[in-house]
Request: fold
Amino acid sequence: MKEKIRQFMIGRYGTDGLNQFLSIASLVLILVYILTRLPLLLYVGVVLLGFCYYRMFSRNISKRTEENYKYYAVKDRIRNKFSGLKDQWDNRRLYHYYRCPQCRQKLRVPRGRGRIQISCPRCGTQFIKKS
Reply:
């Protein structure tokens, strides 16, 4: 039986990070449906699970690989955003964080220096803030 499954999967995409996310998300939605009885959650969960299986058995490997790369790009962007916020939270006693009014660049200045003039390294705009 194991050999038949192996033969069936030859030339097919298989599983990857996006498929793992889709299967976990569908499982969570279906479990939440069981608790809340909101039919929309069941429909979305089943559609996600169907899409997961479609990707798994697909023979268009290049397209599925491209989808997986896009998934990881979005995942990395979100992870970097939250890690930056975590760093900012950890350093809140040492630094103030401001945004440049011109280019919106995030700037870090040390606390306890009184009113200081801050120069943006990206655009050169200068503004005064309390540190």
About this structure: The CA atoms of residues 95 and 110 lie 4 Å apart. The mean pLDDT is 94. The beta strands are 95-99, 106-110, 115-119, 126-130. Residues 93-131 form one domain.
